[in-house]
Amino acid sequence: MGRAIVCLLSGVILLLLAACGTIGPNSAPPHLDYTPGPPVIVTDATYTTATFSVRYPQGWRVITAAAFSTPWVVFITPDETALIALAGDVADTEVVPSNTPEDELRRREQAITLANGETLTAVLVAPDQDWETLAAIFERVIGSARSQIED
After folding, report:
1. pLDDT at residue 21 greater than cutoff 60
2. Which CATH number characterizes residue 41's domain?
3. Residue numbers of the domain that contains 103
């Protein structure tokens, strides 16, 4: 009786395995072969697009543009009280951190011209109480901005 159960279970397992082979397609669907837009690479310390790369502070969250839009990025402090934004279009820098009331925020905007001629707008939005510390971090971030032809 025990051997009959083992044979029956083996048959069922083989049948299930054979059926699994027909579940997925033999090749990748066309929409997975190509993702529209330029590539973006985010590591623990750098953000890189086809246009520029920049170093950002450890532990900060990275929010990046959709693949079909002009490259932009927002780096947000771990407590979400301040941010640094970099964008080719100044309209993409009109953002505020979620955990600080707008009336307590300061904003600094600076244009950066890269070696490839591209101009980025860099913005620091931070609470008054942390301004000096975050302004120094902002300077390091924008100082690290490089066009891809410099690399």
Report:
1. no
2. 2.60.120
3. 36-147
